[in-house]
Amino acid sequence: MPELPEKASAFIDWYLAVVEAADLTDKRYPVKGMNVWTPYGFLARRRLDRVMEEEIEATGSRPVEFPALIPETEFQKEREHIKGFDAQVYWVTRGGSTPLDVPLVLRPTSETAMYPIFKLWIRSHQDLPLNVYQIVNTFRYETKTTRPFIRVREIHFFEEHTCQRDEPTATERVQSNLGAFSKMAERFGLPYLAVRRPDWDKFPGAFYTVALDIPLGSARTLQIGSIHHYRENFSRPYGIQYEAPDGSAQYAHQTTFGLSERLLGAIVAVHGDEKGVAFPSDIAPYQVVVVPVPSAKGADPTPYAREAVADLQKAGLRVHMDERSDRPGAKYYYWETRGVPLRLDVGPREAAARQLSAVNRLGVRVSLPRDGLVESVRGALAEYDAGLREKAQAAFVAAFSRAERVEELTGSSTVRLIGWCGSETCGHAIEKAIDGALLGTLEGPPPIDLGAPPACVVCSAPSGPSWAAAGRPL
Ligand SMILES: [Zn+2]
Asked: What's the gap in Å between 401 CA and the centre of ligand 1?
């Protein structure tokens, strides 16, 4: 196996090599930006989906699934939205050889698929809130360089769409989504920034957008999700109205919350190292791999290992036993590249002593007794997750620094936390200086303790109550 490029100095090369080495995707499919999910990658994706389903349903959202094709007539109802997506949509214009009366759009996102139906579902205030989500594939004709999981043309997409009574309840839903995401991020082991995007960078048709960004070193950032408040921007053109308790007709206020397979890219990027991927145990396709290590000197340890595997599986742990005939060293390397949290090696000596030799993906070794194995494996996984989270948190904190003057942004190797007056002119000056983007103003305190934000780095006018951040989005 070739060595992986160095993560710090050649991040993109490293990333591309690591997703390949870990066998998460096959990018040889003959449509650019549409990759094949391999069995191992799919298992990881399914774990991500489960976490999203569990955390969003805990906040009262329910699953739905809408069709992938949207009539052009519905797609064109919200003007800003069309402008934002027009260049990115795939069109279906023929059924067989017959031209369609109304051309169909392959969904780039599902507002325009769902909202004509929401109009039918919602009659009275008792039908609200409507909180539904789906996890489906969406399609966008990306013109920038495609990258596995990070920028693709067929996107595995989580999208929650809600209808609320008014602006304050819609704002509450945005906050509830932020709460749900913080629980997801905890399980992914991903520290992140929640940032309110500047107006010129919000979602097409949104009143405002809160993006979820992670730093990836050298001032790079990756948006891994977003939450939008639409006010009545979609409910008006789509006629989503309800009868209020006083009998008046009111438009719903809507929100959406979007996540995608970028989360998998983020997990690879944040936790991976020169040896490969490192999965948090909640996401890992296999939490434990057991490797029997036969030796000429003792009895075959395989039956003993199989028994241990059966016990762990019965307890609900995702365990894989590697009985291939390869050398143990080759297997260790193989599973390390794929980011399995915990490996258990079982030779004749371990079998005789009724033990298992454990080594986690961070390189920590410990001997586990066969008795009470389920509990000690759970303990070892929890310890590993804590170590992984600590490492990610240290890198997260180191990825930021404050800047007092706009000149300091040029060539910056960290995401800069700054004061910003809120004006678009100053915003663009900031973007020019950092050769990237003004990510927006932070929702909540900054990741490093900085006190109150200083004056605008460009014009020295007082900034708002929140710090702003500037970086170079991937
Ligand atoms: Zn300013």
From this structure: 19
The answer, yes or no, to whether residue 1 has pLDDT greater than 70, is no
Residue 86 is predicted with a pLDDT of 85
Task: Work out the mean pLDDT of the chain and round it to a whole number.
Answer: 96
Q: Which pTM was predicted?
A: 0.95
CA of 221 to the centre of ligand 1 (A): 23
Beta strand 220-231 with 154-164 is unpaired
How many angstroms does the Cα of residue 39 sit away from the middle of ligand 1? 51
pLDDT in tens, 326-374: 999 999 999 999 999 999 999 999 999 999 999 999 999 999 999 999 9
- For ligand 1, the distance from its centroid to the CA atom of residue 455, given in whole angstroms, is 8
Q: What is the pLDDT of residues 291-323, one digit of tens each?
A: 999 998 889 999 999 999 999 999 999 999 999
> What is the H or E stretch that residue 331 is in?
helix 328-337
Which tokens is 285 given?
A: 């396709």
Report CA(462)–ligand 1 centroid distance (Å). Answer: 8
How far from 436 is each of 341, 411, 429, CA to CA, in Å? 35, 10, 11
Residue ranges with CB less than 5 Å from ion ligand 1:
421, 426, 456, 458-459, 461
Decide the pairing of beta strands 468-473 and 220-231: parallel
Please answer whether residues 6 and 274 qualify as being in contact, where contact means their C-beta atoms are separated by less than 8 angstroms: yes
Q: Is the dihedral of CA 439, 442, 448, 454 positive or negative?
A: positive
**Domains of the chain (ranges plus CATH)?**
11-271 (3.30.930.10), 288-387 (3.40.50.800), 400-473 (3.30.110.30)
Half-sphere exposure for 211 (CA within 13 Å, toward CB): 21
pLDDT value, residue 239: 97
